[in-house]
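Margin note from the TA: students keep mixing up input and output lines. Inputs are the sequences; the output is the structure of the whole complex. Example:
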Amino acid sequence: MRVPFNLADIKPGTFAYLTKRKLKNKEGEETGEIIVWRKKEEEESRFVMRCPFCGVEQEGSTVFTRRPYRVRCSDCDRSITLPKILNEAKKK
Ligand SMILES: [Zn+2]
């Protein structure tokens, strides 16, 4: 899974965060993955994700308001909780 930009072209300080997480299905297997990032001057976070439930790859944007942060799969419509995504996010 790839982010829609070239990381080598990104200036330091562009992102508030950029992080990659494995996502588990309901059996606890890591069948999905998400990369989430937010640019410093933007309120919306953007993501690319492979849904752990249906395996569909998608991208989208959302404003995370309260924890735990969740995104919804555009294909199977399940809600996916992001594990501790921002606490451990690497500061760029
Ligand atoms: Zn899905």
